[in-house]
Amino acid sequence: MVRTPSKNITLAEFLMLPETKPASEYIDGQIIQKPMPQGKHSTIRGEMISTISSIVKPKRIARAFPELRCTFGGRSIVPDISVFTWQRIPRDQNGEVANVFQAAPDWTIEILSPDQRQTKVTKNILHCLNYETQMGWLIDPEEQTVFVYIRNQQPVMLDEQEALLAVPDFASELRLTVGDLFGWLLE
Questions:
Q1: What is the largest CA-CA distance in the chain?
Q2: Per-residue confidence at 7, pLDDT binned at 50, 70, 90?
Q3: Beta bridge partners of 107
Q4: Cis ω on the peptide bond leading into residue 22 (within 30° of 0)?
Q5: Could you tell me if 131 and 77 are in contact, meaning their C-beta atoms sit under 8 angstroms apart?
Q6: First to last CA, the chain
Q7: What confidence tier does 1 reach under pLDDT thresholds 50, 70, 90?
Q8: Three-class SS string for the chain?
Q9: Long-range contacts of 112-121 (CB under 8 A, 24+ apart)
Q10: pLDDT tens digit string along 110-162?
Q11: How many Cα atoms sit within 13 Å of 64 on the Cβ side?
């Protein structure tokens, strides 16, 4: 995580800046650049998007987006995976997916990178839960642990291989264990 030293700027000023690679986020008046994804992070993200999409997209229940900028509640964040239910996906005048998402995802998934602080990522998940997000996951590949955050509930930590991961109601057909998720790293 790279914190850009500068005076506080407004969200509107931040949104006028050119995009960075990796993406930068706007949190509490500061610009914070996300770390560059590495192998484990990229593997889990790709497999997770495919797995979620194979369940919810064909039935037009929801859609999973990688690295999508979501601006809401005074922040502009870029979760590793943002899942929006079908009716909440912003659309343009042609009915196509809009470029700008000014809403919290229904499900936010973050994958911890080796040089990323768990506190910063957890704060983003909690920020989402204060808005319209139903559930957040924090996946830690090094510890092979998943923290599940559900709005107005105690977080749950899962690290047993056979533990079934909780999912939002709209994705109830998704049956994934901790072992399945981290098994992707062996493929």
A1: 48
A2: low
A3: 83, 135
A4: yes
A5: no
A6: 28
A7: very low
A8: CEECCCCCCCHHHHHHCCCCCCCEEEECCEEEECCCCCHHHHHHHHHHHHHHHHHHCCCCCEEEEECCCEEECCEEECCCEEEEEHHHCCECCCCCECCCECCCCCEEEEECCCCCCHHHHHHHHHHHHCCCCCEEEEEECCCCEEEEEECCCCCEEECCCCCECCCCHHHCCCCCEHHHHHHHHHC
A9: 112/41, 112/138, 112/139, 112/140, 112/141, 112/142, 113/34, 113/35, 113/36, 113/37, 113/38, 113/41, 114/35, 114/38, 114/142, 115/1, 115/35, 116/1, 116/34, 116/35, 117/1, 120/1, 120/27, 120/32
A10: 999 988 889 999 999 999 999 999 999 999 999 999 999 999 999 999 999 99
A11: 22
Q: What's the full length of the chain, in residues?
A: 187
pLDDT score recorded for residue 6: 52
Q: Is pLDDT above 70 for 3?
A: no
Average pLDDT score over residue span 3-15: 77
What is the residue whose two structure tokens read 């229940």? Answer: 61
With a pLDDT cut of 90, the percent of the chain lying above it is 90
Token pair belonging to 85: 């239910």
